[in-house]
Amino acid sequence: MAGWYEEAVGLLRRPAVAEMAVDVLLCAVPIWAAVMIGLVIGWARRKHQRKDAALADDDDAADAASGDAGDCVDGRTFFEGGHHVVTEKDLEHLVQLLDNKESGDTTWQHLMERTTSNMTYKAWRREPEVGPIMYCSRTIFEDATPELVRDFFWDDEFRLKWDPMLAYFKILEEFPQNGTMIIHWIKKFPFFCSDREYIFGRRIWESGKTYYCVTKGIPYPALPKKEKPRRVELYFSSWRIRAVQSPKQDGQQSACEVTLVHYEDMGIPKDVAKVGVRHGMWGAVKKFQSGFRAYQQMRDTENTLSRSAIMARVTTKTSIASSSCPLDQEPSNAAKTIDESENSRAVQPGFDWKWVVFGGAVAAVCVLNTGLVGKALLIGAASRRQAKK
Hints:
Structural class: alpha+beta
Strand content: 15-25%
Largest sheet: 11 strands, mixed
GO molecular function: lipid binding
Organism: Oryza meridionalis
Subcellular location: Nucleus
Distance between the termini: 36 Å
Shape: globular
Pfam families: START (PF01852)
Order of helices and strands: HHHEEEHHEEEEEEEHHEHHH
CATH architecture of the domain at 77-347: 2-Layer Sandwich
CATH class of the domain at 77-347: Alpha Beta
Keywords: Membrane, Nucleus, Transmembrane, Transmembrane helix
């Protein structure tokens, strides 16, 4: 034991080793300086944002107290009859996005293309100058009808069985005259991201045998926001469902095509969101596929429909012609359901320890797996020593 200790002391006393250690520390100083500056700036921004949030909460409380108390007792005072929850403007917004994608707009970037024995999947991404990232996907299910796929998308009771991210759902309101529903969701996310809450309206239009299923976030004063889970207010997730010819080229329209357009503002950095979507997309699609096939088997053996599936059959008849008008580079006003101040807070979140932990974890993985930081520091130290010689 003493021999090892003496050898270690002798090694450290060598001038070359000591000089190398000093060089490594000097190379690391800029990294630690950047970290400390980032922490100071983050704390300063957090302090100011807390003050702004407190002032905003006081203003909201004053407005609520001065208003009619009966207005917030029930969402029906805002959405009487369900005609203003999801409107024709929202349908037009979906159709415009679909036409824009299918017209060959080059702003859509290809993300993924996968094929299984009974499913084909393609996905694209678009980054507007203003607003969250948009995603579009086209899925073709073999041996599926548009009606069954429509019911599957709406059936939240069954979704709890196959979607591990859905922790809770509740039908807040429904309007049988046009099939509109107001839904409350809570979704689970990884440890570094808090759970998210969604309150959205949804409605289905039918044009021929094509279904346009529109879902968007809406304000709902009867259910006030809480600190946790964080509510996602800017949310648009809608589908076009129709029968298409099977990719097997058998001449039969035995397949079902689902074209999804989705965007939401979760209040996390865009780059983090892009990485999460890119790495989790195919796994989510496979869960979706297995969930649909399980739903298909369940419907073959059971005649009882859930309340959500029953409401999916109440559609609004319409006639939709494709539009060749170019689409703006940002979500339409019809799909924006939050005010500018709230949107700016969501798009540019303040300092949050979760991202420090997340960034530290990523850095640790890089160091342990590849040694990139260590290699950079050692190369820098070696170059300094070579220059001194």
